[in-house]
Design goal:
The chain is of the alpha+beta class and 405 residues long. It is built from 7 helices and 26 strands. It has 4 domains: 167 residues, Molybdenum Cofactor Biosythetic Enzyme, Chain A; 53 residues, Molybdopterin biosynthesis moea protein, domain 2, CATH 3.90.105.10; 83 residues, Molybdopterin biosynthesis moeA protein, domain 3 (Beta Complex); 68 residues, Beta Barrel (Beta-clip). It catalyses: adenylyl-molybdopterin + molybdate = Mo-molybdopterin + AMP + H(+).
Length: 405
């Protein structure tokens, strides 16, 4: 499907704002079913139900330092050494007045002990311990109290949380071997266009390697492992419709190119052929204006622009949020960060602009080439600099919002 697209009568149609387009898209998102998985298999998955602690952590007071466990009111000693408490091997007796137990970091405090003296401040002579430092302030400073981290029945993670290595560790520490997560959506990505050739093959005059499909599939792979690629498909309505039929069982169908109104822009008629309903078309953003969103039953179809930078930007603004929303993410939209602009930026017009940028020691600046067909600057970019519609100029040093890519 041709990467470009000429203007036509539809060009006069009013553009949707980015915010309205994203709202309408997320309204189409249907939550995927939940499944119970081992915690160790949930990296990157979104919780379908809250995770509550099945136990208290620590269950009993622990030492936060290597040293000596004592009864605090026995200060300043000396004490008689009566045993040792190590992690996994607690001292089984009770610490009586003027007695002490050698203790390791993470070990259980013996019964009746309520303070830990760090080993650097102590001297052991036979079975006698003497203290030569300043008492801990407060006296239980080096003790991890029961429930310091969490208590039984406390909510550890909310529904919609994305599982990270730290959250996996928290769920396991809370007593869980499995958790409920949303199934990852099935995504089909169609490469379409007479000019597209398989990567690494000889190119006929006017042909280009099909790079959008692999790029879009790789972007989606950050949020789902269920991805199928179809194509390249030639520029014929019948061929595109047949490819779409192959993807009928996908939760999300993504195409790139053909969403404009040129003679070779076949997405709209192909969608009509397969019985899909267009929800909206054309959004006030740059790059990426000719994005089209449609539905076919429960399936959401994203017709992304054909220029690679436009496809990349709209995937971040629409495809990835849709994938998050279908998995119940607490926040589906990309999160912006505030950074100083290290260069002056001009005012914007009626469309929101997403400049490819790079971080530097003085802040963030646009890359030198912003053409929507240029892949070298895109590959060298760290972020998208967000310039809302009708924004005033930005002076060097003033803050701008950025989305990391």
């Amino acid at each position: 499907m041709a990467r470009g697209g000429s203007s036509g009568p539809g060009a006069l149609k009013a553009l949707l704002s980015l915010e309205e387009a994203q709202r309408r898209l997320l309204d189409l998102a249907k939550l995927t079913p939940s499944e119970q998985l081992p915690v160790e298999a949930t990296l990157g998955r979104y919780l379908a139900a809250p995770v509550k602690a099945l136990r208290t952590q620590p269950a009993s007071p622990l030492s936060a330092m290597d040293g000596w466990a004592i009864r605090a009111h026995d200060m300043p000693g000396p004490w008689r050494i009566v045993g040792e408490s190590a992690a996994g091997h607690p001292y089984k007796g009770t610490v009586a007045p003027t007695q002490t137990v050698r203790i390791s970091t993470g070990a259980l405090l013996p019964d009746d002990a309520d303070a830990v003296l760090v080993q650097e401040d102590c001297t052991a002579d036979g079975d006698t311990l003497r203290f030569a430092g300043e008492p801990p302030e407060p006296l239980d400073r080096h003790v991890r109290k029961a429930g310091l981290d969490f208590s039984k029945a406390e909510q550890l993670l909310g529904s919609g949380s994305r599982m990270s290595p730290a959250r996996m560790a928290l769920a396991i520490s809370g007593g869980h071997a499995t958790v409920s997560v949303h199934r990852q959506p099935q995504v089909a990505v169609i490469d379409s266009g007479d000019e597209l050739a398989l990567p690494g093959t000889a190119l006929a005059p006017g042909a280009i390697p099909a790079s959008n499909g692999p790029m879009l599939a790789a972007l989606c792979a950050q949020l789902t492992g269920n991805i199928r690629r179809i194509g390249p498909v030639p520029d014929r309505i019948e061929a595109l419709s047949e490819a779409m039929e192959q993807a009928r069982d996908a939760d999300i169908l993504i195409t790139s190119g053909g969403a404009s109104v040129g003679d070779h822009d076949l997405l709209a008629p192909a969608l009509k052929t397969i019985g899909a309903d267009v929800d909206f078309w054309r959004v006030a953003i740059k790059p990426g204006k000719p994005i089209m969103v449609a539905t076919r039953g429960p399936q959401v179809v994203l017709g992304l622009p054909g220029n690679p930078v436009s496809a990349f930007v709209t995937a971040h603004l629409f495809a990835l949020p849709l994938l998050r929303a279908m998995q119940g993410a607490g926040n589906a939209l990309p999160v912006g960060e505030s950074w100083p602009s290290s260069s002056a930026l001009p005012a914007t017009g009626k469309r929101a602009e997403f400049l490819r940028g790079r971080f530097g020691p003085d802040g963030v600046a646009p890359v030198s080439v912003q053409d929507s067909g240029a892949l070298v600057p895109l590959a060298n970019a760290d972020c998208l600099i967000v310039r809302p519609a009708a924004s005033a100029p930005v002076a060097s040093g003033e803050p701008v919002s950025v989305i990391r890519i």
